[in-house]
Structures are given as structure tokens and as C-alpha cells.
Amino acid sequence: MRRALGFTLIEVLIALAVLGIALAAAARATLAVTDGSMALRRHLAGGWVAQNRIANYTAMNTLPDTGTNEGVATQAGLEFVWRETVSETPNKAFRRVEVRVYPPNDANHADAVLVSYVSQ
């Protein structure tokens, strides 16, 4: 009697299990890369919002009033809430400006923080 050529059921099941594990790992790695690139996009666009706030003061060539201001900005198709704190410095010709940029629904985690000094 000749033995039939081919794979046994156990061999096929083991191969399918290995293939399933490999595909699940690949899908998880792809998801992690996608999440990371979206977070990087938010941080980069948030940094641009903060830089634009500082650039506005530089372009106006006047000292900003001390205190806290808030607003909403759109950058790269993303919505952000910015909060800036302007404070005095020992040198009266300069003001310290700290800009924090948040996602609209999470005011506890800033996407970007920028501290700069503005003068006349």
C-alpha cells in the first residue's frame, strides 16, 4: 500500500495558526505606526500654532499686555485651543510669553508648549 502525498490536517492547522499570529502582529505594528504618525502630526501642527502666536507679537512690534489669553486655531486641518500667559520680566523692555496648545477636547495634555521673550 502506498502512502498518499500531501499535508496532514495537523500540519495544515499549525501552518494556519502560525500565519494568523504573523498577520495579527503585522496588523498591530501597522496600527502602532499609524497612531504614532497621527500624534506626530498633531504635535507638529500644534507647534506651528504656538509659533504663529509668538510671530504675531513680533510682527506687531508692541509689548503684549500681561495676563492670560485663550483662543481657537486651525492648522493643517486640525483644530486646536491655545492658551498663552504673558508675564513681565526684570527688564521692562521684554515680556515672557508662554503658549500652550491643546486638542479641543483635552485641556490636560498639551500638544505643544513654547516659551519666548518678546520686545518692542
UniProtKB/TrEMBL annotation:
Main location (coarse class): membrane
PTM summary: Cleaved by prepilin peptidase.
Stored InterPro entries: N_methyl_site, Pilin-like, T2SS_GspI_C, T2SS_protein-GspI
This protein's UniProt keywords: Cell inner membrane, Cell membrane, Membrane, Methylation, Transmembrane, Transmembrane helix
Subcellular locations according to the entry: Cell inner membrane
Residue ranges annotated for the Type II secretion system protein GspI C-terminal domain, each copy included: 40-119
Top-rank lineage group of the source organism: Bacteria
Topology relative to the membrane: Single-pass membrane protein
PANTHER family linked: TYPE II SECRETION SYSTEM PROTEIN I-RELATED
Function: Component of the type II secretion system required for the energy-dependent secretion of extracellular factors such as proteases and toxins from the periplasm.
Assembly and oligomerization: Type II secretion is composed of four main components: the outer membrane complex, the inner membrane complex, the cytoplasmic secretion ATPase and the periplasm-spanning pseudopilus.
Family: Belongs to the GSP I family.
Name of the protein in its database record: Type II secretion system protein I
UniProt organism field: Chitinimonas viridis
Source species taxonomy: Bacteria, Pseudomonadati, Pseudomonadota, Betaproteobacteria, Neisseriales
